[in-house]
Amino acid sequence: xxxxxxxxxxxxxxxxxxxxxxxxxxxxxxxQEAVECHISYKCSRFDSLRGDIIEMEREAxxxxxxxxxxxxxxxxxxxxxxxxxxxxxxxDSVLDSVxxxxxxxxxxxxxxxxxEIQKDIFHLVEMVVDPIDELGNMIVEARKYFHNYKExxxxxxxxxxxxxxxxxxxxxxxxxxxxxxxxxxDVDPITVYHVVKLAEIIGSIADHAExxxxxxxxxxxx
Amino acid sequence: MSAEYLILIxxxxxxxxxxxxxxxxxxxxxxxxxxxxxxxxxxxxxxIAGILNIVGATFIGSHVTNxxxxxxxxxEVMSDPHIALAGALAAxxxxxxxxxxxxxxxxxxxxxxxxxxxxxxxxxxxxxISVINWGKLGAVVLSWxxxxxxxxxIAFVMFKVIVRVILSRDAIFxxxxxxxxxxxGITVFVVVLSFLFKTPLGxxxxxxxxxxxxxxxxxAAVLGYIGKVLLRRYLVETESNGNGAxxxxxxxxxxxxxxxxxxxxxxxxxxxxxPLAVIYFLVKTGxxxxxxxxxxxxxxxxxxxxxxxxxxxGKRVMTTIGTKITTLTNTRGFSxxxxxxxxxxxxxxxxxxxxxxxAAxxxxxxxxxxxxxxxxxFRIIFQIMIYWVLTVPASAITSMIVFKIIRIFY
Lengths: 222, 410
Fold this sequence. Notes:
By secondary structure, chain A is mostly helical.
């Protein structure tokens, strides 16, 4: 503090947000692998993959806490502090939902999923992996916008947000298909409940990604 | 050896110490944005700041110093050379003590305030409360609030203009080059005006205001044009990702940083050698008036002290800047420098003892408020201001005690 000029500069929250998005992005592929592994029952790595996700979740949590803890009162940023917190909460919820989905899967280790439904679940997972990927890009592009305030750059960010919204809608549709299918099948009620809930949890990943996009939309508002 | 010469030697030692401190701590104000924005390397910054501080102190620094800075204390107390000598030494020692304490406890205390406070303390001891010119003191305290605010506004506006006319447009590089004469021009305009009005060297030319304005404008136009030609010739667009503006402003920013360093040497050297000049004059002539001449070797002595401070401790400060201030790009750095330089010019034109620190702090806040920086700690300004204000009574009391102790022996 001897040199006031230096004490005014703080660690940028954007660094942390980007780091957090990277962790979330990394988890997407592990998640996809874990679900495929569990459902195809030819794979014994599920527990270790789930362990990886739990570890990533913990790491992302600590990044989130670090960002929150390093924005004291009176910090000037190009964005509102509470918008940033809400954005971060949504981005973190993506990872929470991923972890939750794997938790749910692990409750029935020997579940036999009907063949017709397997493909749809894989499809749904694919549908939610893309928005997770987009989150990382969104931060990078938003950061560019906050550097040059160019309208073109703002449009790039807005396009990503729109993509997130469309992807969520698509995921919703697949989620609905899975639910409708399983109810019409002749399987035991426990399996029905397990699959319905699984589809809902996986679907919520895209919801959280979309919510993060909505918060970003508020941040880049003029 | 007589007591007077002993006092003179002590004066030299502590005057040098104060100068060293200015260099070690305040170098951040002039070079931080340039180093942070990677316009120059740490080594270059140390070298440039050192040289320019010596040049600024020696050739532009005030050759006449008010016996007590800015007339806050009535000069009646100086009528007895005996007391005046003890007082100047007490002020210097008290200020040095405060600066050391601040460095030890990491407090944002400026040398300007330490000296002002120490002089007030000695004045009260020697002549009572009535010698303090409260109106003047009030103006000084007010300037500590006004100058950061002023700098904040300039930086805010400058950054918004840069965003509006360059950053938010297409073909940024070409646009930056096309707009560069205006930015170079306005900087040159401020620099030339400040040189003509602020420096004793400039005052020797005794140019009238309208003439000075015309001269500054002409020089600004010519240098702005030359700058554009040089930029176009030597700068090639390397990246198309929007960094073109930063490349152009990096060149312009080197100039603004140099100006801040020069102004710093000229402006701040008096804090270190003002009381020393009084001691020197008293020992040499035995009398003192309202003002004393400052021999050029004393100015150079102060300048070298500042340069050594920069050389020895400045590198550590700059390294911190390089790693800590990563979000300050050249366009932002230019806005900060420009605001700081302009504020120093205008404040000193009004006769207010402004420090480059105030101006630089205000500039950073201005760019932050213009959404130019990813995170700036605004609350720190209040802490800084509290210390700015607290330093004065604190160093005044220290100075009183030191004065009493010196009077026991002398």
